[in-house]
Design a protein that fits this description.
The protein has 132 residues and is of the alpha/beta class. It has 2 domains: 58 residues, 2,3-Dihydroxybiphenyl 1,2-Dioxygenase, domain 1 (Roll), CATH 3.10.180.10; 67 residues, Roll (2,3-Dihydroxybiphenyl 1,2-Dioxygenase, domain 1), CATH 3.10.180. Strand 7 and strand 8 form a beta hairpin. InterPro entries: Glyas_Bleomycin-R_OHBP_Dase, Glyas_Fos-R_dOase_dom, VOC_core.
């Protein structure tokens, strides 16, 4: 089995795609007018418009309702990304050290999903992610 992607359902797909293009500095690939993907070297973030839910089962997902998942991106320098994003996102917290060895910051996307950018900071964290 291969983990392929995380998908968000968006009430405003264009705002969400624009937001994640800004955060990741990567262009989205629009596979249909109501579906886009942002492909990174490690994972894909898929974004579907609310009307795509009916293709699965009405009511099985809803936009702006997530309070359990955190979309996380490992970056080279979380403090540099903080400077780049500081006036462009809704902050949960600025960069700080976490007990598991990462330096992390969190903010919300336009529909409320929690997003974290982190840099492995301790030797153990760097080893866990294969960085030095």
């Amino acid at each position: 089995m291969k983990f392929a992607s995380t998908r968000l359902i968006a009430a405003d797909i264009h705002a969400m795609v624009d937001f994640y293009e800004m955060v990741t500095a990567r262009p989205a690939e629009w596979l249909a007018p109501q579906f886009a993907e942002i492909v990174t070297p490690a994972a894909t973030l898929a974004i579907g418009a609310a009307e795509t839910v009916a293709l699965f089962r009405d009511g099985s997902a809803e936009p702006a309702a997530n309070r359990t998942a955190i979309i996380e991106f490992m970056v080279d320098d979380v403090d540099a990304d903080f400077v780049r994003l500081k006036d462009r996102v809704e902050w949960v917290h600025e960069p700080k050290a976490m007990p598991w060895g990462n330096r992390t910051m969190q903010f919300r996307d336009p529909e409320g999903t929690l997003v974290a950018l982190f840099t492995p900071a301790t030797t153990a964290a760097k080893e866990r992610f294969g960085s030095r």
